[in-house]
C-alpha cells in the first residue's frame, strides 16, 4: 500500500487493502464472506490530510458521529454510495484524528465485523468468536506474524460496552465486536 495523500490515492489503495485483508483471513484460516462488514477505518498521521479526508467524506455522505474514544476524536461518516472491498461493502467509514501513535503509512487500516454475543464482554466475545470460528484464538496465538489485541474502547457517553478483538498483519487489521456502529451511535445519542 502507498501513503495516501488525498481521497484519490486512498481509493487507489482499496484493492491492495482488500488483498491484504484476504491474506490475513487466509493466515487465520477463517472465512468472513458470510459476515456483514460493519465499517472500514482510515489511519492518518497528518492532521492536514485528516481534515482533507473529512471534507471529502462530508461531500460523499454525512458525518453521523463525533466521539472521543480513548482521548482522541473519531468521526463516523455514512456515505451516500457504499464502498466495495472484494466480497464486502459498507457505507460507514471511521476517521480517527491523529494522536500520539504514528502509523507506518496513511491509508485504509481495518475492517470491522459484528459477531453477536450473549454477553458483551471480552470473554463473551471470545465465546462468540469460538462458536463462529472454532480454534481461531488458539491458532492466532501460535502465529508469529499475527498480533492479537483485546480491548475495551472508552467512549464518552457510551451506554453499550463494545469490546473488540483485533487481528493484525502487514499493517492491516480485522476486528470483531458485539455491536454495530449504528447501535453504538444510537446508544450515545440516548445518553
Automatic annotation (TrEMBL):
Cited InterPro entries: DUF991_YecM-like, Glyas_Bleomycin-R_OHBP_Dase
Cleavable signal peptide: none
Superkingdom of source: Bacteria
Ranges in a coiled coil: none
Pfam assignment, any one: YecM
UniProt xrefs under PANTHER family: DIHYDROXYBIPHENYL DIOXYGENASE DOMAIN-CONTAINING PROTEIN, PTHR37519
Name under which the protein is recorded: VOC family protein
Species in which this protein is naturally found: Salinivibrio siamensis
Amino acid at each position: 500500500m502507498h501513503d495516501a495523500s488525498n481521497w484519490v490515492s486512498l481509493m487507489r489503495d482499496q484493492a491492495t487493502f482488500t488483498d491484504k485483508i484476504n491474506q490475513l483471513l487466509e493466515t487465520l484460516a477463517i472465512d468472513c464472506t458470510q459476515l456483514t462488514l460493519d465499517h472500514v477505518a482510515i489511519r492518518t498521521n497528518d492532521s492536514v490530510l485528516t481534515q482533507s479526508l473529512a471534507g471529502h467524506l462530508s461531500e460523499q455522505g454525512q458525518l453521523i458521529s463525533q466521539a472521543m474514544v480513548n482521548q482522541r476524536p473519531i468521526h463516523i461518516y455514512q456515505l451516500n454510495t457504499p464502498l466495495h472491498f472484494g466480497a464486502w461493502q459498507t457505507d460507514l467509514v471511521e476517521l480517527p484524528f491523529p494522536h500520539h501513535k504514528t502509523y507506518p503509512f496513511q491509508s485504509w487500516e481495518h475492517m470491522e465485523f459484528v459477531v453477536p454475543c450473549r454477553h458483551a464482554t471480552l470473554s463473551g466475545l471470545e465465546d462468540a468468536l469460538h462458536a463462529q470460528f472454532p480454534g481461531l484464538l488458539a491458532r492466532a496465538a501460535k502465529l508469529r506474524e499475527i498480533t492479537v489485541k483485546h480491548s475495551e474502547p472508552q467512549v464518552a457517553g457510551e451506554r453499550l460496552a463494545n469490546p473488540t478483538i483485533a487481528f493484525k498483519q502487514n499493517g492491516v487489521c480485522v476486528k470483531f465486536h458485539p455491536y454495530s456502529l449504528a447501535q453504538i451511535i444510537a446508544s450515545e445519542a440516548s445518553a
